[in-house]
Amino acid sequence: xxxxxxxxxxxxxxxxxxxxxxVSAKIKHCDDDLLTFLNRCADYIGKGDPNPIPSPSYKAxxxxxxxxxxxxxxxxxxxxxxxxxxxxxxxxxxxxGKPFAHGSKCGSYTVPL
Length: 113
Known about the structure:
Layout: H1 3-20, H2 25-45, H3 56-66, H4 71-76, H5 86-95, E1 105-106, E2 109-110
Antiparallel strand pairs: 1-2
Helix pairs in contact: 1-2, 2-3
């Protein structure tokens, strides 16, 4: 994902998050997790872009973020789905040791049985 595309995606998501949510500790926590997730895992989760195979160090950093973020909070945010692929999110979470149960949902994506 090019730096310009990444910046645009980040700005769009931030604008969506700020415009439609009330400020609370939980939402701020979720927003912080989302921005960190986008920053560290953008190459894996971009919607519409080819899914490249990033370097092992990039994947390790992405996995570190995934292991500490509030995954259900990010899955439940419907606005995020405009810019990231929930299927790719589920895939990378599984690769990082945080698999979704078969039949569970992340946004509009249902994990195959």
